[in-house]
Amino acid sequence: MALPPGFRWGVATAAYQIEGAAAEDGRGPSTWDTFAHTPGRTADGATGDVACDHYHRWPEDVALMGDLGVDAYRFSIAWPRVQPTGSGPANARGLDFYERLVDGLLERGIAPAATLYHWDLPQPLEDAGGWLARDTAYRFAEFAYLAAERLGDRIDTWITLNEPVVVMAYGYAFGIYAPGEELLLGALPTAHHQLLAHGLGTSALRARGAGRVGIANHYSPARPRDAASEADTAAAGAFDLLMNRLFTEPLLLGRYPDLAPLGGPDPASYIRDEDLPVIAQPIDLLGVNYYQPTGIAAPADLSSPLPFELVDLPGHPVTGLGWPIVPDGLHGLLTGLRDTYGPLLPPVHITENGCSFPDEPGPGGAVDDAARIAFLDAHIGAVRAAVDEGVDVRAYYVWSLLDNFEWASGYGPRFGLVHVDYATQKRTPKASFAWYRDLIAASREPLAGG
C-alpha cells in the first residue's frame, strides 16, 4: 500500500487562527475581527488578536516543521495584510512577512502551499456587500495577482479559496461564523460569487506565472438516517446537492446541478452565462477537506425552509467535539469522486484532515494524544486504500500543525500536533507529532533504498 513517488506529506494552518498581530504593519480589519469582537459571537469572547503569535514566532514554527520532516506547509495569506481595505495597491509590509516565511520554509526544503482566502475577508468589502456582491470576486482576483507578483516565483502550489461552502452556510445562511448573516437559502448567491472569484483568481495567478492552482473544498458525505426511507434518501440527496455538488460540478463539469429542489433565489438573478467558462477552466488539483460524514433525515417540521435536517450518526466513536470518526467515509468520498467525474477529476490533495481532543500536558509535560494517532492512522489508511484502487492522490496535510483559534469555538478545541499554552505561547510537540514524523520517515525508506 505504498504511496506514489513524490507524494507530499504536510501540515496546514490558517492566518487568522494562528498569526495574531491583528493591527501590526498595516493590517486592516477582517470580518473575523469584527465578528470575534462582537459580544456573544465566540466562546468566552475569544478573538484572534494574539492567537498563537505566529507572526512573531514563525521561525520557531518553521523549525518545528523541519523537525517533523514534512514536504509541504499549507498556510493562508491574510487578505487584509496585503490589501487592508480589500482593494488598491499592496501593503508591502504585509507581503514582507509572507516573503520571510516562504524563504524560511524553502531554506528547510519545505514547499510552501499558499491559500489565498481562508475566510478573512477585509471588512470594507463586507461593508460593500461581501460575497453577496459580485464585485468581491473581481477584488479577489486583484489580490491574487498582487500575491503572485511578489511570491509566485517561490510558491509552487496555490489554493484560491478554502471551503466556500462553509462561508456560504455558516457565514451567510446560519450566522454561526463571520459575517454572521442569517439568510438561509438567500445565501446561495455567495456560492456563485466565490466560485467566480476562484475562476478569476486562477486566471490572475496564471498571468503572473504561478505554479499549480486549485481550490480546497469541504466534503461531507450525506448518510440518510434510514436508507430504506425514500424521504430520508431524498433529503440526503438535497444535502449532497447543496454542500458537495454545488461546489464541484461547476468546476469540473462547467455547469450547475439543478438547484430547483433547494428553492432560494432564481439562479438567473446572479449567474451569468459567461461566468461558467471562467469557473470551469482546468485546475491542477482538487483540494479535499474531510472530517466526517453527516447524518441526514427528512425535516420533521414540514414548514422548514430547508429540505433536510441533520441527525446523529450512531455506532461510531466520536472526537472531542462529538464528530463521528468514520475513516471509510474518506475512502468512499475519494472513490466516489473518481467514479463520478472520471478523467475530469484532477489530482487530489487531502488539504485538511484531523481531529480535536481535549489534549493537556500530563506529568512531566508530555501530551499523550493516542486518540489522535488512531484517527490519523485510520484516515491515512483510507487514503492508501483509495490510491490502491486507482485514485490519484498526491498530498496529505494534517489539520493542524498547532492548536489554535478555532473560530466561534474559541480556544477550547485542540486540533494540533503541537500543544500551545496560550498564556505563555510555549509549544510542546504531542505524541502524534513524533508518530507523524516517524511515519513520514518510514514512507521514504523504500525510495532511499531503491
From TrEMBL:
<dbReference type="InterPro" id="IPR017853">
    <property type="entry name" value="GH"/>
</dbReference>
<keyword id="KW-0136">Cellulose degradation</keyword>
<keyword id="KW-0624">Polysaccharide degradation</keyword>
<dbReference type="Pfam" id="PF00232">
    <property type="entry name" value="Glyco_hydro_1"/>
</dbReference>
<dbReference type="InterPro" id="IPR017736">
    <property type="entry name" value="Glyco_hydro_1_beta-glucosidase"/>
</dbReference>
<comment type="similarity">
    <text>Belongs to the glycosyl hydrolase 1 family.</text>
</comment>
<keyword id="KW-0378">Hydrolase</keyword>
<dbReference type="InterPro" id="IPR033132">
    <property type="entry name" value="GH_1_N_CS"/>
</dbReference>
<dbReference type="InterPro" id="IPR001360">
    <property type="entry name" value="Glyco_hydro_1"/>
</dbReference>
<keyword id="KW-0326">Glycosidase</keyword>
<protein>
    <recommendedName>
        <fullName>Beta-glucosidase</fullName>
        <ecNumber>3.2.1.21</ecNumber>
    </recommendedName>
</protein>
<keyword id="KW-0119">Carbohydrate metabolism</keyword>
<dbReference type="GO" id="GO:0004565">
    <property type="term" value="F:beta-galactosidase activity"/>
</dbReference>
